[in-house]
Amino acid sequence: QAVVDFERLGKYAAAFQGHDVGFCCLGTTRAKAGADGFVRVDRDYVAEAAELARAGGCKHFVLQSSRGANAQSRFLYLRVKGEVENLVQAVGFDCCTILRPAVLLCKRQESRPMEWIAQQFLGAVAWVFPTANSVPVETVARAMVACVLQPGEEKVKVLENRAIHELGKA
Question: If one looks up domain 15-169 in CATH, what number appears?
């Protein structure tokens, strides 16, 4: 494990060398970082990490994005997620897997009251429709590992929420 300063990520290029696979789940919230900070973390840091990983020999990059990611979206969150997907794909990995989970079900240390309410509701809905609007973070993690252990033929593979559930159970 290497601790890096994302504002000077290029200085840590050695930490990205010699790995066949890269996993990226980096992200923040607009509320926590502001609009500019959100863009810097969720797009710029991720894109730079992908470039460093590729330069270091990474062949398969796995990116956690978001359901609805679209570089043309009017919503900042979805637009930034779509932009970073495009940037990561453009890096030129032999294989790039993008996971687009719906609402992540997890326990957080910081207080996010609205997210907590949404998680309670979606957690209940998940009992009836398990793949519709949410996914436990553990399922996403298992799906990320599974997509590397069971690679397909596609150069770029995008997994939506239902596929994440299926792969995460395998």
Answer: 3.40.50.720
